[in-house]
Structure formats: structure tokens, C-alpha cells
Design a protein that fits this description.
It is built from ten helices and eleven strands. By secondary structure, it is an alpha/beta fold. The protein has a single domain, classed as TIM Barrel, CATH 3.20.20.
């Protein structure tokens, strides 16, 4: 989060009913099959389990998966209601196992709360994946411990290169631990073999012929050409790329009941999708931070 975040008025945010209407349109009109609730932190919004339940009505139109990304701090008490509401799986951010390192990276977070949330999610029957952003000079030494822990727990793990979306001006290219460096560290402990590349954002590797590790290498090996995601912010802006400088406002047309205009805006945004990281962020930091767009 930025040190001085700008908080939006509640009236600026789309109501669950409005979000549901847009999801139904994305699925029914444009073939979207998967929805991920992200943030910021989605669990701070009251009633998120109710919204997950609302989304189940879209499944007959073609919605196949409803997921959630979280920092895990509130997951312990939310996991069971989310599972009961129909959530399929959850991604948990865990950048360090060391309590001191975790606290430093999260501004005072407590790693045991996240671990308890992960266990609660598994008990509730949710599929859990772990995401870890690796930053040089901070948690680079956590690569092997995180991999060993995830392998022992049989939890899917993806390392993510540090992207220029931190919202604080903290990013610089020398802080990026590239995919090849992560693999070099992992190779000191495991036998590593590459798996065939798919349309997934991550490249996958098999460790000791049993554990599947993913690495999302946006900086060192951009995958813009195969990206098939769009993002909708809480205030109704559509981003066809994480690195777009601005979103397309859907809220005005939505609240005016002009779904033809919504459709046109969505088509324009996706058909004219920019080249993303390849085009913009090799020249400098993106203007919209991850706490607005989510993972």
C-alpha cells in the first residue's frame, strides 16, 4: 500500500448488485469463464461471502470458477463462510516464513495469522495456492525455505518477479530477482526440470519429480501476447492490462442503465488492448498500483 492511500467515497464504489450485473454481462456476452475477487484486500469489504453466493447464479451462463486472492490476515474466520458460499479456490500472499521478515515486508503483519488462515481454508475444502513476490535486498533468502515448506505441505507455490506496481515509488530494476536467479537458488536444493509452457502466466517446473513450482516472470520474460485477463476496479474502471495508465469508466453507463454503451466500452478496451509491460514499463514505472488493480 502507498504510505498515504487515497480512500474512495462509498458512493464511488460499485454495489454488489452492480458488480453482479457486470459479471453476468462479461460471462454471457463476452465469454468470460473465471472471476477472481482481489484487491487491495477483498476480505475487508463487508459481505464478500454474500457476493460469492450471488455469483453462483451466473454459473449456468458459463461461469466455471470463482476465486479469491488475499493477504491471509482475515482468512481464518472467513474461510468456512466463503467455502459454503461456493468459492472454488483461494490464492494467499506469503512472501516470507520468517516472522521478522514477514513483519518488515507487510508493515507489521504476523505470519502465524496467515498460516492459520491457510490451514482454515484447507479444512473448509478450498483449494489453496501460495504466491510470493521476491525482492532483492529483502526476502531473496526466503526462496528455498518457502519452496521446502510448500513442498512439504503439498501446497502449489508461485514466485512472482517484483513488478513496478507497488504504489510507493519503491520499485527499481535492480530489486527484481529474475526467474533464472530463482531457479538457481531452488536448484541448490532440488532437481529441477522444466514443464511445457501453457497459456498460464507462470512457467512451471517439476522439483524432484514430484512438486510443481511456478514462476511468473513479467519483468524478465513478459507474456503479454498470451494474456487473456481484464480487471475491473471497485469503482467500475475496466483495465485490459495491469500496466495501463488509466481504466475505462463503466460505472456511468452502468448506472444510467445503458448496457449497449457498456458493451461498446468493453469491446473497445479489449480489442485495442495495449502491449502492456513490453510497451510501457521497460520505459518506467506504471501509474496505477497493485492495491487498486489487484493480482
Amino acid at each position: 500500500m502507498p504510505e498515504c492511500p487515497v480512500w474512495r467515497s462509498r458512493t464511488d464504489l460499485l454495489r454488489f448488485e452492480e458488480l453482479h450485473a457486470l459479471v453476468a454481462r462479461f460471462v454471457g456476452k463476452f465469454g468470460i469463464e473465471q472471476v477472481r475477487l482481489t484487491g487491495g484486500e477483498p476480505l475487508v469489504r463487508k459481505g464478500v461471502a454474500r457476493f460469492v453466493e450471488m455469483l453462483q447464479s451466473v454459473r449456468p451462463a458459463g461461469l466455471k470458477r470463482v476465486s479469491l486472492s488475499t493477504n491471509g490476515a482475515m482468512l481464518a474466520r472467513a474461510a468456512a463462510p466463503l467455502a459454503a458460499a461456493g468459492l472454488d479456490d483461494v490464492n494467499v500472499s506469503l512472501d516470507a516464513l520468517s516472522p521478522e521478515m514477514f513483519s518488515q515486508m507487510t508493515g507489521g503483519g504476523r505470519v502465524h495469522e496467515v498460516l492459520r488462515g491457510i490451514e482454515s481454508a484447507r479444512r473448509a475444502g478450498l483449494r489453496v495456492k501460495i504466491n510470493a513476490v521476491i525482492i532483492r535486498g529483502l526476502n531473496q533468502e526466503q526462496v528455498v525455505p518457502l519452496t521446502e515448506w510448500a513442498a512439504a505441505e503439498d501446497l502449489p507455490l508461485r514466485f512472482i518477479e517484483f513488478m513496478p506496481l507497488d504504489g510507493r515509488g519503491f520499485w527499481s530494476e535492480d530489486k527484481v530477482v529474475a526467474e533464472k536467479e530463482i531457479l538457481a537458488s531452488v536448484s541448490e536444493r532440488f532437481d529441477v526440470s522444466a514443464l511445457p509452457r501453457t497459456s498460464d502466466p507462470a512457467s512451471y517446473y517439476l522439483l524432484d519429480s514430484r512438486f510443481r513450482l511456478g514462476i511468473i516472470a513479467t519483468v524478465s520474460n513478459p507474456f503479454c501476447a498470451s494474456c487473456d485477463r481484464v480487471r475491473l476496479t471497485a469503482d467500475g474502471r475496466l483495465f485490459s492490462c495491469l500496466f495501463a495508465p488509466a481504466g475505462i469508466d463503466l460505472r456511468k453507463a452502468l448506472r444510467a442503465g445503458r448496457f449497449d454503451a457498456v458493451d461498446s466500452l468493453v469491446r473497445d478496451a479489449t480489442w485495442n488492448k495495449p502491449r502492456g509491460f513490453i510497451e510501457r514499463c521497460n520505459r518506467g514505472r506504471a501509474e496505477v498500483s497493485m492495491n487498486v488493480l489487484g493480482g
